[in-house]
Amino acid sequence: MRSPVLPLTWHLARSSGRRGLQSQLLAAGAAAVGSFLLLVMVAAALGAGTRADHTTWRTPDAVPAKRATAVQATTTTYVRDEPVTVVNLAQLPGRRQTPAPPGLSGFPERGEVYVSPALAELLHELPANQLADRFPTVRSYGTIGAAGLASPDELVAVAGRAPGDPVVSKAAGEQNFYDDGLTERAPVAGFAGTKASPFTGADQGTVLLGVVLLVMPVVVLAAAAGRLGAARREQRLAALRLAGATPRQILAMTAVEAAGVGAAGALAGALAYVALLPALAALPYGVGAWYTPQLWVGLPWLAAVVLAVTALITVSAVTMLRQVATSPLGVAQQADPRRTRAVRLVLFVAVLAYIWMSTGDSGQLNTRQLLALLALFYGAFWLFGPWVVDRLGRIVGRRAKRPATLLAARRLSDDPRAVWRTVSGLVLAGFVAGFFSVSSLGAEGPTHHGQVAVITANAADARHTAAKARTALHRAGVTATVTVTSEDDYNSLLGGVDGVTAQVSGGQERVDAAVTALTPLGSGRYPVTQEYVSASDDTVTARVATVSAATLVLSFLVAAASGGLTAAANVLDRRRVYGLLRLSGTPLEVLDRARIRETVIPLAVLAGGTTAMGVFGAVQLNKAAGTYVNTSGALQLVLCVAVGALAVFAAIAGSRPLLRKVTAGPVQTSD
Amino acid sequence: MSTVLAGYGLVKKYDSTTALAGVDVEVHERDSLAIMGPSGSGKSTLLHTLAGIIRPDGGQVLLRGDRIDKLGENRLSALRRKRFGFVFQFGQLLPELPAEENVALPLMLEGVPRKEAVERARRWFAPLGLDGLEHRRPGQLSGGQAQRVAIARALAVEPDVVFADEPTGALDQRTSDEVVRLLTSVTRASGAALVMVTHDADVAAHCDRILQVRDGRISNYSPFTVA
């Protein structure tokens, strides 16, 4: 016999009325937001890896000299504070032809220069003495295609050189501590290198950090969607049980309905992701915007995310109903408060104790301990949060003087897990804000802004080069003080390397002009600037700053969506009691204030607490990395928490018209 | 006895359906009035109109001689809170509040300090046979106990009139009898009048008078003498 579950579910869903439809739309909306965000996160993580892969050819894939067909010397110069990766290639005579690098139509002949589209634009835009004169003079530039670039905004040049050109000489490839990844030279036979550019190598890791911090709020959002309409389902359960339906049929119907709504929403989110791919690709990260295909996750991932969100919503809905099926009266009437046990506190304290002991006497954490802190913190978080909500409810309940506060406090204690779910998004966002606002990974030590330095072979060369530098700068119209730096001068820009340093007067244009003017003096190496020396630290700092900003914005959006969704669901689920209270003369404002306070109270305590923990974690991280704490981030933190809290309140306030509507008329049918 | 609440010429229409077609009714001090009638007769509409929940399309509602059907929503809401008490079939108690706080809530809404509100609320527990249940939550009470807490809450503000809409509809016969006996006696003892909608003749028999409504009109008045 054909199962009645599907047709009956469809019939009930269709005839559930406007309020049923409201719940379904809200659930589908949450599923859409959840799948969209998850897909964006997967896309960013995979895309960052793809981008890094597109840069590996620039790092010389060293082969023994006998097998080499060419010499590759990759270096980096800066213009307008942006890195320009320059790959110099020289075909060795008498050896077989070296294959073309990715993105190039052929191996560059001597004197040929290929540039990325963004660099071509910049070469056209800037005066030659600020950029173009750093490269061999050519009539026209070739173009590097997307296969050789991480981003359409990346600045890359590939220059064909003669084997004897100083630019590809061994001296040009000599490395100082700040050259790692920026300047490398080796004999090569192709471009099968696996080491990513330092400007893209950290991208995926930082994206993954953001993903880890964001995934839980998104899961909470999807789970909240599954709990929408719980009261409606409880009523249906009772009615259908009376009509003879089995618990299995009820659960199956609930699962089918939740899966249908969840799948529709998740698919809508996936479609939104696909439709918005070009817009998403325009968002800059790291070396710039994305090529759209880099952010396409592929059909398997798309299907996996849609299925995961659908499954999450279905499981959430069925779990909720299973509680009803087990004890319908208990859940419907809330016979017992859903108390939390003190073991949650014990476990949380144990985690903190472990973290405290792990920090050792110095109070510092190594990377492993930091990861343990993050993982344990997250785990403990979900145990500890409801317990704190419960205790808060009891404390506030004892002291409450006004009805709204009393209602809010009792609600906290009544179902702390539900309240926790409402606020957990922003509480987690608070942790993110606290963590990133002070974790500025800038290296300690002097900075040398406005300086341009030329590395020389020895001190004698430095003195000669200093004289030439003065002349070159004078000709270029750059005002600068030129000094000789020795290998004993560790605080100089060159950090204990022989050379010449020019302190340039004027802005970035003058510095760029100085770099261009001094390029011929570097024996094949570009002059060095502050950006070059601190590239490694600056790149990580910049990526963390970008990821933290994106994580914060998304966390707050998700938290606001979760808060608004749960508030709307609560109004729909509790409309009878709200309606009767209002009918008896309880002012709408009291009910509304109670709703707001049941969010504000735990938010203020928990978000404040986790923000402090985030700050603590970041301070420990900074200590471990030997970097300073970004004190100016405090303002950003306050701003973020305030904006996030306002967003959540706005989302909750958004359900006020719904509250007004469901409590407007007599609850019982007038006859 | 003076008239506490009165409705004269009450008319209420829902689209093409006439729920009340010119009803006159008076409720006196300590009076208990049962409104009976078949489904769709207009009995709940009459109760809601007298309680200021629904505005009549015609006629007037007077509370101690003052017209209330023209009051603004806020004043009506305040009036319901201060001068009326309500007992419904089920679901009017907040599940997360213990019984004594459910009863104290209307007092707190009136600005009575919490401690005093709870003390005043507790005074109703003994007369209603609720001793020892002050800290129980609605889900931990039986149906009859929950209705008695609802009665206590309705009476806590010392209202002029208590409105009860099918207060025993979800109870078994024995509990129903017990609850309605308490409802009528304690309400009378408090000095309030009672207006109760019921479809149960046994329940209605506890009231001083029964008002039969049919097709939006009063079809019969039956005065009873309470033993």
Overview of the molecule:
The complex is a heterodimer of chains A (671) and B (227). Chain A has 671 residues and is an alpha+beta fold. Chain A folds into four domains: 1-30 and 205-336, no CATH class; 56-188, no CATH class; 339-440 and 539-665, no CATH class; 451-533, Alpha-Beta Plaits. Chain A contains 21 helices and ten strands. Chain A has helices at residues 5-14, 17-53, 117-125, 203-227, 230-242, 247-275, 277-281, 299-326, 328-333, 343-359, 367-399, 403-414, 416-438, 459-475, 508-518, 530-533, 535-573, 575-583, 588-625, 633-653, 656-662; strands at 70-79, 82-91, 113-115, 142-143, 156-160, 184-188, 451-455, 480-485, 499-504, 528-529. In chain A, the strands form two sheets. Chain A has a six-stranded mixed β-sheet with strand order 4-3-5-2-1-6. In chain A, strand 1 (70-79) and strand 2 form a beta hairpin. The two termini of chain A are 42 Å apart. The model of chain A is unreliable at 326-334 (pLDDT under 50). Chain B is an alpha/beta fold and 227 residues long. Chain B has a single domain (3-223), classed as 3-Layer(aba) Sandwich (Rossmann fold). Chain B is 33% helix and 28% strand. Chain B is built from seven helices and ten strands. Chain B has a six-stranded mixed β-sheet with strand order 6-7-8-3-9-10, with helices on both faces. A four-stranded antiparallel β-sheet of chain B has the order 2-1-4-5, with helices on one face. In chain B, helix 5 (143-156) packs parallel to helix 6 (173-190). Chain A binds chain B through residues 329-330, 333-337, 400-403, 406-407, 410-411, 413-415, 576-577, 580-587, 590, 666-671, and chain B through 14, 19, 37, 39-45, 48, 53-54, 77-82, 84-86, 88-89, 91-97, 101, 105-106, 108-109, 113-114, 137-140, 165-166. Chain B: GO terms for molecular function: ATP binding; ATP hydrolysis activity; transmembrane transporter activity. Chain B: This is ABC transporter ATP-binding protein. Chain B: InterPro entries: AAA+_ATPase, ABC_transporter-like_ATP-bd, ABC_transporter-like_CS, ABC_transpr_LolD-like, MacB-like_ATP-bd, P-loop_NTPase. Chain B: Keywords: ATP-binding, Nucleotide-binding, Transport. Chain B: Residues 5-226 form the ABC transporter domain. Chain A: It is found in: Cell membrane.
